[in-house]
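Hi again,

Forgot to attach this to my earlier email, sorry! This is the prediction with pyrrole-2-carboxylate bound. I've pasted everything inline since the attachment limit keeps bouncing my files.
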Amino acid sequence: MGNDVTLSLDDAGALCRRVLAGVGLSAAHADAVAEVIMAAERDECRSHGLYRLLGCVHTVRSGKVNLDARPTVTKSAPAIVTVDADFGFSSFALKTGLPLAMRTARRLGIAALAINRCFHFSALWPEVEELAEHGFAAIALTPSHSWVAPAGGSRPVFGTNPFAFAWPRRQQPPFIFDFATSATARGDIELMLRAGQALPPGVAIDAQGNPTTDPAEALRGAMLTFGGHKGSALAAMVELLAGPLIGDMLSLESLAFAEGTQTVPCHGELLVILDPSRFLGDRLGENLDRAERLFDAITEQGARLPSERRYNARSRSIDNGIKIPPPLYEELMKLEAA
Ligand code: NDP
Ligand code: PYC
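C-alpha cells for the complex follow:
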C-alpha cells in the first residue's frame, strides 16, 4: 500500500521496547514482549505484530500486569517443568523456563513446560520454532477469553485457543503450523473492523445468534470454531490441557478475571517438547529423511507447506523493513509520547 510507513526492523524493535519500558516493564520483561511482537510483524502475521502493542499497553495500564514480575521455575515431576509467571507476560516466563525444559527433554526424551498466571497475547509459532531450531518436535497450546461458541451452540464458551506444532528439519527451516481453533483469530476480526472490511461468511454470529459478516456485530456476538464440531473438540482439548490440567484458568474464567477491562487474556500455557534423537538414537538421520518424503509429496504437487508464506515474508522484511498503516503508526507514536 502506497501510504504505508516503512520502518527498519531495528527501528521498529527499538520503538516497541521504548513503549513497553515507558509503561513500566523491566528491561528483560520489555525485551521478551518486544521480541515476540517483532517476530510476528517481521513475518507479516499482522494480527499479532505491532498492532498487539496497543493491547499490551492497555493491559499494563489496567493495573493487572505485575510490572516487577519475577517468573519462578520449578520441577514438579521428573518430566514436568512449571513456571509461575507471577502475572507478567507469557513470553518473559517462557524465556525463563525454556532452558530447563530443553535440558529435561534432552535427558528424558520428553518434557512438558507448564506456564501459569501469565498474560498471553502472542502468536505461538515463535515458541515452537525456537524449539525446532534446537532439534525438538514441539506442541504449544493456550486458551484465551471466551469468545467462541461451541459447534451447535450460540453463546461463547471457548477462547480462540491456538495450537502450534513444529518439526525439525536438517537442511530447511522447521515445518510449523500455528492456528486458532476458531474460524479466524479475533485479532483478524479487529483488524477488519479497523480497515472497514466485511468478514468472510461462516466465522461469526451476532448477539441474537444470526450469521454475520459485520466485524462489530461479531465482536459483540460469538465467533465460530473452524471445521464445526472438529474445531470445537480441539478447542475443548486446549481448554483442558492448558487449563485444569495445569491448574489454571479456562477462557470463561480468564474473561471474568478481566472484569470488563478488555485486557489481554490471563491464564496458562502448555508446551510439550519431544527429542527425536532420544526416540530414535542412531536411526535419527534416516527418519528425518523419511519425514522429508512427506514434505516432498506435498510440495511436488504444487501445495505449499505451512510457514512457507511466513519464511518468505521474513526474507522480505529483513531486506526491506516493515510497512505499517498510517493510523497504526500514529497510535504507536502517541503511545511513545504518552
Ligand atoms: P492462519 O489461518 O493465518 O494460519 C494457520 C496456519 O496455516 C499457519 O501456519 C499458515 O502458515 C498455514 N497456512 C495458511 N494457508 C495455508 C495454505 N494455503 N497451505 C498451507 N498452509 C497454510 O492462522 P490463524 O489466523 O488461525 O492464527 C493466526 C495467529 O494467531 C497464530 O499465530 C496464533 O498463534 C495466533 N493466535 C493467538 C492466540 C492467543 O491466545 N495467544 C489466540 C488465537 C490466535 P503461514 O503463516 O505460512 O501462512
Ligand atoms: O487473535 O484470537 C486472537 C487472540 C487472542 C489472544 C491473543 N490473540
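Residues 45, 47-48, 120-125, 142, 144, 160, 162, 164, 177-180, 184-185, 188, 265, 304, 306-310 surround NDP (ligand 1) (CB under 6 Å). Residues 90-108 form the longest helix (19 residues).

That should be everything now.

G.
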